[in-house]
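Exercise 4. Each item below gives a protein and its sequence. For each, produce the structure-token representation.

Item: Ig-like domain-containing protein (Eschrichtius robustus).
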Amino acid sequence: MAWTPLLLVLLSHCTGRDQPRGPGSLSQPVLTQPPSLSTSLGASARLTCTLSSGYSVASYTIYWYRQKPGSPPRYLLRFRSDSDKHKGSGIPSRFSGSKDASANAGLLLISGLQPEDEDDYSCGVGHSSGSSYHSHSVSDEEEVRQKPLGPQTLALSRFSVRSFCGGICKGGFSAPRSL
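Answer:
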């Protein structure tokens, strides 16, 4: 059973147990998102993705996804800095990324909210250290959804996240590695 030790090593890397913390390690920050946001149609929304203490948002690329019920997550955009960002194909200019260093958070900004913007939104973080790539995937367990509260109100919902590494762990999806 030569595979058993290898499997245990892979699981150890995926869970980040007994690993040093911070960029360049296999340990992952915990991401926190408020469960939902309700705002008016036509208004702007500011969705936050806060990194746990001990990790600096400046060291990470923030990824944003949206997901319709019954569909896989769709890549929206990534943001590391004003000079290092990317938006997915067909994503309207109303969607943009940013960071708030004082809050240690990545931001998804949506201007001029439309009815079709009602969705589940999730964030992830990634960084490269040599050939290592670390990201986060969506976890369904803590999904919180809200329906529109009225004809002029829009509810945006988001997921919490759990970590996985480089597509090795089952049940995850990878952010684009180079765009």
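Check: The mean pLDDT is 64.
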